[in-house]
């Protein structure tokens, strides 16, 4: 690419592509310039620094995300919000690490928090418990998406461990007798997990009102 054909949008897209393929550690001015076949100096006509580039990538991804499903019920709203969050993490596995950087997260990163806290408030949770629940949902969703993106941890799979006789005879009777599906259904697992968390919200509200 010729430097005169370069745009800020193309620089951001190249950085995002690098983030998706290799992770946030791989995103540097030099690496992005190499992927665009321009000199690193050419990038500085469009971004001020590496941090400016990282902020632009985060904004590019999050500003387009639609976390508000417009659901009337609080539970449906939370499920929609975190289903979108999970889909975003699966499309861009390096996003969570990117947002950990200081002064990188754009204002739009607070959109799912606002939506979730409003919904949990409607459910009857206190402000503090709503925030606690939000971070529980974030942690669960991030871990589940990370697990799915990386693929199975074969050495820790009960089925695989049993088949390879790694746990047979060591007293793990429950694991030995389990009959699990050969192919893990991540979508069903996500639905089950978020359902457990939200069932906990209902129980917490009932205890509070008792």
UniProtKB/TrEMBL annotation:
Keywords (A to Z) from UniProt: DNA-binding, Repressor, Transcription, Transcription regulation
Keyword S-adenosyl-L-methionine: no
DNA-binding region range list: 28-47
Pfam families attached to this UniProt entry: TetR_C_1, TetR_N
All residue ranges annotated as the HTH tetR-type domain in the record: 5-65
InterPro entries linked to this entry: Homeodomain-like_sf, HTH-type_TetR-like_transc_reg, HTH_TetR, Repressor_TetR_C, Tet_transcr_reg_TetR, Tet_transcr_reg_TetR-rel_C_sf
Superkingdom per UniProt: Bacteria
Entries under PANTHER family matching the protein: HTH-TYPE TRANSCRIPTIONAL REGULATOR RUTR, TRANSCRIPTIONAL REGULATORY PROTEIN
Function, as annotated: TetR is the repressor of the tetracycline resistance element; its N-terminal region forms a helix-turn-helix structure and binds DNA. Binding of tetracycline to TetR reduces the repressor affinity for the tetracycline resistance gene (tetA) promoter operator sites.
Name the UniProt record assigns to this protein: TetR/AcrR family transcriptional regulator
Species of provenance: Neoaquamicrobium sediminum
